[in-house]
Amino acid sequence: MTSFEEAETEETVTCLHLTFYHPGQDEKMMFRCLNFCRRDQVRADDTAKFGRDSSVCRYSLVDTRVSRIQFSLQFYRKLHTSEYGFEIKNLSKKTKLTVNQTELGYLNKIDLPWKCIICFGDYQILAEIQEGDAVDYFETHLHLAEAPILQEKCLPSLQPVPENGISPSFFLSQGKSPTEIDENDL
After folding, report:
1. 10-46: burial string, b at 16+ Cβ within 10 Å, e else
2. Residue in 146, 52, 145 with CA at minimum distance from that of residue 95
3. Does the keyword Cytoplasm apply (predicted)?
């Protein structure tokens, strides 16, 4: 047998990509303690904590408006499957955390979707899970966004469209108001 045939099977590692944004990041430099250059290995039994207390948090944000421990991410294996996931828990008593549109109060936790936006205060974090099969650890890879992750979009209000397909806004633009008629009169 060759050394290639005897080599260990290469494991793929679950990687959590986190892209950070804050509107004042250029002036306040709140991300200066985060390492954006390389992937970071985290043991599977460790909890990855984010907050301002660098003695407790693995990922420290330099901002007095951030809680000492803002939130945590716990890696776990889903019951009766070979899939892995992350659980996010809000550890801030003062600031609510939202994951996509789900609001988490203090000590609330949910499964982290494979792609989502985490928000608290003015912070926006895009989280994307890259699946792997390693059991003992996972990796984090931090990125810095140049522009806001969430964009305020002005969407037109969704009004029901009647079965005849003519929108009520059509009548308003014609200077007429809609009138109700019996379908038998058509």
Report:
1. eeebbbbbbbbbbeebeeeebbeebeeeeebebeeee
2. 52
3. yes
- What is the identity of the amino acid at 152? E
Quote the CA–CA distance of 20 and 91 in Å, as a whole number.
Answer: 19
Residue 40 identity? D
Q: How far apart are the first and last CA of the chain?
A: 85
Q: Which residue has the tokens 């460790």?
A: 46
Answer whether residue 154 shows pLDDT above 90.
no
pTM here is 0.74
Rounded Cα–Cα distance for residues 62 and 182 (Å): 66
Q: What is the pLDDT of residues 56-93, one digit of tens each?
A: 999 999 999 999 999 999 999 888 888 889 999 999 99
Q: Which of 174, 168, 171 is nearest to 156 (CA)?
A: 168
What local confidence, expressed as pLDDT, does residue 134 receive? 82
State how beta strands 40-43 and 47-51 pair. unpaired
> What does DSSP assign to residue 184?
G
Beta-carbon count within 10 A of 70 CB: 25
Domains of the chain: 15-144 (2.60.200.20)
